[in-house]
Amino acid sequence: MLDFETDYEQWRQAKFAAWQASSRRQFIPIVDPAALSAQEVEQLRSQCEQSNFALYRVENPALADKEAIRGLVHQLGMTHLDKNLCADNDSITTLKIMDLGRASGYIPYTAKALNWHTDGYYNPLHQHIRSFLLHCVQNAATGGENMLLNHDLMYIHLYDQDPALVQALMQDDAMTIPANVENGVEVRGRQSGPVFYRDAQTGSLQMRYTARGRNIEWKNAAAVQQAIAAIEQLLGNDNDLIVRITLQPGEGLICNNILHGRSAFTNGNIPGRERMLYRCRSYDRLFSNL
Ligand SMILES: [Fe+2]
Question: How far is the CA of 261 from the centre of ligand 1 (A)?
Fold first, then answer.
């Protein structure tokens, strides 16, 4: 296995070649999400290996109910599922606008834009989200576009500017997430950790990040501040590394928890046509334990 630290040049070349060879904007057709064919699995696996994510399209969207999506994630190697605060009982979260209740305090459940982040950046490292799936049941009347950036390419972007930038972000105290307090009760303690790290399970590069400054304290060190500014600059300008997609009913995204965000959306006023997505998060890297 190539090492992104000591064999950097080789790793970089391999990653870029794979990225260039990948057909990352193409949707891989799926007939039955509950029972993938060997060919479908191979296409998804190979696409994820090349670009850290894959897009799919279930030919008959009606087949992709929650039960089928639960079956799908297991076939992708997502076996240890995260149960976040607002997940439904079966670890699959229904993302739609929630006006009332606990979820209404969190931006994913509103129509607002979601700035760049990786999922679960606030989790302790032993519960790091290594992969997630987003499946579109109903698209919005307008907006709701997802933007994606493979974090391997972000690492390369920074390293090529100055290796000290990635070194700064690999420190255990590069980022600190303040405690989460709901109604005076602490539901999650303070968490410190690196931005980039080597995953002990798979040896691959992982990233934790959020552009929402209010949710984070960056280490007060020049190299960390400089690295964060370089990340913001790349994410803030349109470039070839950013992929933008608006999922349609039956379409979905799987990824190794790469950098992503969402534009604001409006639902229109047709009852039953509100934007709705299923999301499932896992502690497993895609296809790593198959
Ligand atoms: Fe997310």
Answer: 6
